[in-house]
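Deviations from the work plan: none for this task. Representative record:
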Amino acid sequence: MQLQNNLQTKTGWEIIETTFNADQLSTTGSNFMIGNGYLGYRGTPAEWTAEQFVACIVSDTYDAAVDGWRELCNAPNGLFTALSINGESLSLFAGQTHAYQRTLDMQHGLYQRTQKWESPSGKQIEVEVEKFASLDNVHLLVMRYAFRPVRAARVELITGIDGKVWELNGQHFKSYQCFVQDELIGVETITREQNIQLDVVEGLEIAGATPRTTERVQSSDRSMRQMVFDLEAGQQVALQKVVAVYTSNDGPTPRKRAEADVQNALKAGHALLKEVHQKCWANIWQTTDVKIAGHLEDQTITRFNLYQNLIATPRHAELPIGARGLSCQVYQGAAFWDQELFNLPVFLYTDPHIARSILKYRYNTLDGARKKAQRLGYYGAFYAWTSGKTGEELFPDHFFTDVLSGRKVRNHFNDWQIHISPDIVYAVWQYYNATGDWDFVTDYGAEILFEVAQFLVSHVYFKKDRGRFEFIRLLGPDEYHENVDNNAFTNYMAQFALEKALVVEARMQRDAPEKREALLARLGLDATDIQNWQEAADLIYLPQPDSRTRLLEQFDGYFNLEDATPEDLRQRLVHPDEYWGWPNGVAVETQVLKQADVLQLFAVLDNFPADVMRANFDYYEPRTEHGSSLSPSVHSQIASRIGYSKMAYAYFKQGATIDLYNASKKVNSGGSFLGGIHTAACGGTWLMLVQGFAGFSLGEGGVINFSPALPENWDGLAFRLSVRGNGLAVNLTRENLILKAEESNATPLTIKAHGQTVSLEPGETQILPQAA
Amino acid sequence: MQLQNNLQTKTGWEIIETTFNADQLSTTGSNFMIGNGYLGYRGTPAEWTAEQFVACIVSDTYDAAVDGWRELCNAPNGLFTALSINGESLSLFAGQTHAYQRTLDMQHGLYQRTQKWESPSGKQIEVEVEKFASLDNVHLLVMRYAFRPVRAARVELITGIDGKVWELNGQHFKSYQCFVQDELIGVETITREQNIQLDVVEGLEIAGATPRTTERVQSSDRSMRQMVFDLEAGQQVALQKVVAVYTSNDGPTPRKRAEADVQNALKAGHALLKEVHQKCWANIWQTTDVKIAGHLEDQTITRFNLYQNLIATPRHAELPIGARGLSCQVYQGAAFWDQELFNLPVFLYTDPHIARSILKYRYNTLDGARKKAQRLGYYGAFYAWTSGKTGEELFPDHFFTDVLSGRKVRNHFNDWQIHISPDIVYAVWQYYNATGDWDFVTDYGAEILFEVAQFLVSHVYFKKDRGRFEFIRLLGPDEYHENVDNNAFTNYMAQFALEKALVVEARMQRDAPEKREALLARLGLDATDIQNWQEAADLIYLPQPDSRTRLLEQFDGYFNLEDATPEDLRQRLVHPDEYWGWPNGVAVETQVLKQADVLQLFAVLDNFPADVMRANFDYYEPRTEHGSSLSPSVHSQIASRIGYSKMAYAYFKQGATIDLYNASKKVNSGGSFLGGIHTAACGGTWLMLVQGFAGFSLGEGGVINFSPALPENWDGLAFRLSVRGNGLAVNLTRENLILKAEESNATPLTIKAHGQTVSLEPGETQILPQAA
């Protein structure tokens, strides 16, 4: 079926492009990408180079090409392959292309392209490409590149490793060395700042013809094989390329390991590599797929987001999920709070060991958070707004550029947006609740919780005359309003974090006294500190819904700001690229929001009554500009909860198509490129489906709640959840909620839905009719 | 002698302009002005109108011509007089002017002008004008306007009341009614917002000739008499004009009172009016003059500043001193902290009842300060940054305009610059110490102190982990750095204010228990409140000088800002009129200051050791841009104290010539007119002389200290001080400090100077040789 933005699908498992659109190079390069959490390879044709945004982003390679800006590196492109027929180079930008098709097969993690090209002088050649980033061995990129001239022709082929890749902020490699090992070619690079060694090794097999000539061509940043074929009409040549990428972060002798992997892969052969890869994908989809019945477009959109969230997430090591995944260098390949609140939930309930790995990453980076706290005059752990390998703050003091003065603006994302720390505590607690993994808490989580509690106590002020603690000078998720006090989202989350630190401390006193003792000693904490947490937890100011209007004020004085709509503000812009927020943007003195903090609060702490949620949704929603890709999914979830079904669906469509339908802003204020995959929106799609439409939540005691609100135009919604080691298949139809506990479950599941509480024995299925 | 800026002096008592400079209309109009604290009449020729910045600013007439901007009104110009000879209008802008002289006689409070004018067609006429704003009856303006044609001529004269006066921000009068009463003419106006009735009545006498014809000419905003004289060669006609200005704020029937005053004044005649007026001036100068021996220019400069401070200051009622006095409508004719810290000290030690009146004004406006506190979520008294009649905040939320976007900027002068409240407490305490007027304290001062203490307690935050109170989100005197914490000046002043509230409360408990009881009851205060003051006073964070560098940090984190000089920043401007401060000006992220808070702190709380003062002067001075007219006098005072004699003198010259030598910025960022007399710099001149060069200070017990540092090129400095009802003549020469107690003193004076302590009996003179 036809989708929007020049896309089609057949089964809901793939997106297909049949017309090439040169205006969307950066978008389609992201959308058609392949990856495996170790590397992301953009969905660009093999003939392309830096100008067309070719990139192979490698996780864990944080390095500064320019001082003060550390980001992931782009590996030299081992899949580069170009050909020319009778001297004319195959291109999507010249000649004529027939039978063009670019496909992302999400079920199998495959990129495919077919094209019949007619050169300017009328020569015709057919090309068929398939590639994947192996899920079995995450260092491997595998490509089959086949071509066939329609009439007899001389075809020149160049293939190898191209160092000319897309660099957003300068060249990371200070050295670039080409080497040849047996039949393999390779390049070894060293990064400028961190001296990371990165090796790319390529192996090649050719079937269907023998080249007339073969040469090796090397330049400072290219290592190529150049071949000439004299081919009959219809004679197909198929290249089998295998590329391995290793860095010194992966262990010693990366070059040797890359060589060995390529040799082994060539031995195994394309068919086997692909089979194993597909098996891995099949396993993932078994736990992760969300099926939508009766709406193929939404099914496709859903899988696109699940797929992108999956390939953005490192499975091989305890590393962060980038705000743009591994789709490009935007946002430095680093984690934000998005990771815990948007990317993590899907793993929490489908593949909890990945959630654990993400949180373990936060544990590993505690020292970075401690350094940041100390540098800013606090103690404990103030997590980085933008967190790379070490957890030290990667976000620059000056991010946006004032387009009117050309001057960099001092934004305060990195020092005022403190909710990141309690957000991580929240995720730790969610993990504990979803898995019951108390060992993780005592071994790692507790240290995070205690250090965040310390940070919060070092940040908070006591207002003696009001008898309460207040958080001053904040930036909440709504980034248009900096320098605010008692941001509701921040205060509630801080209170949550302090409470959980106290709970864990108390439980450890009972269950793990030695670990507790040792931890407190190591952190230098004593009874006074714990008393401070308690006092703060008890007396933090938590803005309450107004008794009459039921409104919760986003921060002190918000309701006194000018009441305006996003449309009003658009009229006030003197330059289309102005930043709307701090310090002097059009939204600052108005009630217009980038995203709604209060709704975000409802989304995470779901103990607010429905009338409060409804009143606040009604108030904040028309004032929200959705300048963040995180905003629609929150709106959709809350809309589902309060019975705003049409709105819930509209926001689902908006949030889930940001990338697929190319609806996102591509540059920020000041002109920096901001494209790439919005991984938080991908994670948010799962939230809208499972927490929104199915109304899933997990109570503190492990009770599973559903409160379904299926969109009108769907016939059903089905997914699998994993809760405390037990599997549950959920199938929501228009008539019923069908729940099936997996055979292998260890314990019965307690489920509340439609006002009933049911207990589901292992293997048992129950059908709960929808409420009238 | 010749001064700078096209000025001369003869005796040091006058400034004389002998060449007319059309480029300096606004400056000379201010510099040559006359006034008496009730009204200020700009030093503009009688023939001029609005285009030449004619204004007669009347105190106490705060009114909004445009919504949200309340300022003093400009009365219709009762002195307007123009003439033409044989049809050609006398003008400074046409024909030729010979023997031009404009004089401000500061000794006698007189404006004089002589001019021999040759018309374009060669007609010649001599004009001699003298006018004054009576100090005896502050409602009266008196002018003698004499003219004499060189050859026989027909001279047409028009004189009366001209409503076309300079309005900075729109027309204040919604009605304008001309009337005639006997021989008098008048206009009665009603202001737009406050419905203030303002009456201007004019009386005229003519000597030397009888007009051939006389007509009355009235238009909507002009009431004129038009006369034609046929004059012989050399025949002089002298007009005697008397104008009275009354408003409904002065009492009932302002029109009747104005008519009566004019009638009486005409009866008394010019000579007598002038004699009484001059006697008043003589009395003032007797207590206020500061004599400089050996430097006529500095003598003149000094008197100019004393004069302007005197005429800016209301003596007739408890009203504020405007930041531009009564010289124009800039800064709304309202008081800032300048009043207490720059204008008030001269009165404190020369004419304490005026100091009392100023402080009584602050008492009268406590309700405005209470309202402001409440509106911003505090309690107690948060004094207005810009204070008019009621003490409600007159400063707009948006003052500057971002010249690049054309958008108004939200400045935080009105809500973050809290030091205004403790500054007023400081002045109350200074008044009490200088006068011993305990009744004022118990009747009025205590209420100010207690309410400010309440405000401070409602503003301050307790930082539990540091065990101290902190002030958060401040704007100090250095207005380039908004949103700072623990601004040293603010914190110290707040601590001072709290301490004095406690001292007064304790003394009242002993000396005035009933008044105390009644006051506390009225304010709703109890022991808990007083305990809160004590706790805050004890635990307010007071930044201390670094043990090694001796530097005191202006606010938290200041030393981490980029180190730059004002010159560096000038290079970074993308538009010459950019505001340097909040939110995104060039100074914000640097150490460049508008004025130095730490030096300002030393200037008021003089208990910092000399090495600390020196280290901080050395550090802050090169980083200070002196964007405020308050800055040079502070620098001069501290330079005097630490032995930086040359710098002290250079800053004296800079601070004392801001207006006279036309060195001030005339427009702000966004283009609003900012000219007029900088009254704080006028008051600051006295501070530089008496507290700086003579090193005068008054110890808490009433001990008078001198620590002289006479500028190298002066022979002497002499002035009179009044301390607790006793007079002291101080004469500082190169060799000696000569001190003479007045005969009428009630008690001996204790004086410390040059390491000696002397006691001076009434009438006694002592000569203390200068230290070697």
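Chain A has 19 helices and 31 strands.
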